[in-house]
């Protein structure tokens, strides 16, 4: 039973208790709206149970193994590295357990949100059914997330492929793991398992990993995966599966103990009664939205993975909040177009705004600093990486790529720079702590400032200013 009695008409009905629904419900309740959240599984969603939290916990264990293996290059011998997968799994579960209370029904109810367990089905433009109960709503927020996509490969039905949802139940480290898909999930989990000791092969139909990312960044990730022992089969499609073997279109047969499918995600929209509610879908299956996250039903807003890419927790949260406040206050706030993204491989790939490739031919300048020239990277022996700033004609930061350890931590400053339209001069003029990977940002920005100073006109004007200042000083001295 919900702690708060359900009113006849609720101000906001939230369908889905993942990040988008949780943040939307908290926002609406904080604004004083009578809010009901319906979840048919566990509150916390993909991020907590099968996505960000377990994957980053697994990557942390994998990174510890990799650090131990390279410790001797820094003069520290740790002996043979042994991975106990059961203890790695315990670490993953402990991380989930530690984060879970924030996303719990108790936390929601404490914030004033009524929580219902069950599947919500819309029965009309302003009504929904949850089991036996019928709810009328002034506004609703659709936040049902997305499922892993399954490619139509012959024989897939003869095996039990792993997905990001089922992977966490695997009790033994797979000896041979084939990962289908070299996007963020394939790269992060492929690297994690390779570092933990699986023989990993990553297969991707594209001729490179991490397709939307900067090609140089993707190449560094590919090299790192190979160093970790993973094989890459790029430009290859899986065409047939028989138990234990994936056949590729080039005739290669890849034996596996487990196959992990990571070829994208599909918005969860079936069985929700969206027809009855008058909520239309786009051709890719995501919910049709306006810029303020309102669906084709004027009472229903949507946020998170159900709205299509990008599939990130931070967009789910931000959009959940914007949608909920628009819904309960009658606003038309638009979503922020500046979205940072980080792939948590080693090295991390962090990007925001216009990429160097997108900027080509637009009059933008790319200032790039290799991390081999960054003192902190040299000190840590982590020089494989770079920082690129994309600057427009007025020297404003319109994009950035950082590849290196903890690149995601550096990205906050650059995201703010893009959002606030800061210039290279603003970055170069801000004191950054030394030695950090941020030195690369300062050096890239300084390159731009110095290039401007090297312009003959600017140089001439500066020389004249220095000359005049010198003469004035000389005059003052002779007067004394
Ligand atoms: C392996 C992996 C790693 C990831 N790592 C990152 C990362 O590092 N950083 C990042 O930003 N993103 C990451 N993501 C993506 C991120 O997890 C998702 O973008 C985010 O969790 C989406 O949140 P959501 O609220 O839209 O959907 P979900 O979290 O999927 O929540 C939807 C909820 O709705 C419920 N539901 C569905 N239908 C109904 C119904 N009819 N009635 C009631 N309830 C319903 C579901 O049970 C679910 O709880 C990762 C994803 C994966 C798979
Ligand atoms: N760090 C993060 O923020 C993070 C981490 C994991 C996941 N995610 C989110 O989850 C979403 C899903 O991730 P994903 O990696 O599954 O999807 P993705 O769409 O990003 O990448 C899928 C990859 O699979 C390849 N592919 C597609 N069909 C194939 C086939 N039949 N055979 C071989 N390769 C094929 C594609 O070329 C692509 O490279 C992403 O869009 C991402 O936004 C984010």
How is this structure best described in words?
This protein is α/β, with parallel strands linked by helices. The protein folds into three domains: about 10-145 and about 265-330, 3-Layer(bba) Sandwich (FAD/NAD(P)-binding domain), CATH 3.50.50.60; about 155-265, FAD/NAD(P)-binding domain (3-Layer(bba) Sandwich); about 345-455, FAD/NAD-linked reductase, C-terminal dimerisation domain (Enolase-like, domain 1). The protein has 15 helices and 21 strands. It has helices at about 20-30, 45-50, 50-70, 85-100, 105-110, 185-195, 215-225, 275, 315-330, 355-360, 375-380, 405-420, 425-430, 440-455, 455-480; strands spanning about 10-15, 35-40, 115, 120-125, 125-130, 135-140, 145-150, 175-180, 200-205, 230-235, 240, 245-250, 255, 260, 265, 300, 340-345, 350-355, 365-370, 385-390, 395-405. The strands form five sheets. Strands 1, 2, 3, 4, 5, 6 and 16 form a seven-stranded mixed sheet that branches. A five-stranded antiparallel sheet has the order 17-18-21-20-19, with helices on both faces. A four-stranded parallel sheet has the order 10-9-8-14, covered by helices on one side. Strand 11 and strand 12 form a beta hairpin. It is globular, with a radius of gyration of 26 Å. It starts with 8 loop residues before the first strand and ends with a helix. The model has no long low-confidence stretch (mean pLDDT about 95). Bound molecules: flavin-adenine dinucleotide and nicotinamide-adenine-dinucleotide. Flavin-adenine dinucleotide binds near residues 268 and 314. Its cofactor is FAD. InterPro entries: FAD/NAD-bd_sf, FAD/NAD-binding_dom, FAD/NAD-linked_Rdtase_dimer_sf, Pyr_nuc-diS_OxRdtase, Pyr_nucl-diS_OxRdtase_dimer, Pyr_OxRdtase_I_AS. Belongs to the class-I pyridine nucleotide-disulfide oxidoreductase family. This is Pyruvate/2-oxoglutarate dehydrogenase complex dihydrolipoamide dehydrogenase (E3) component. Keywords: Disulfide bond, FAD, Flavoprotein, NAD, NADP, Nucleotide-binding, Oxidoreductase, Pyruvate, Redox-active center.
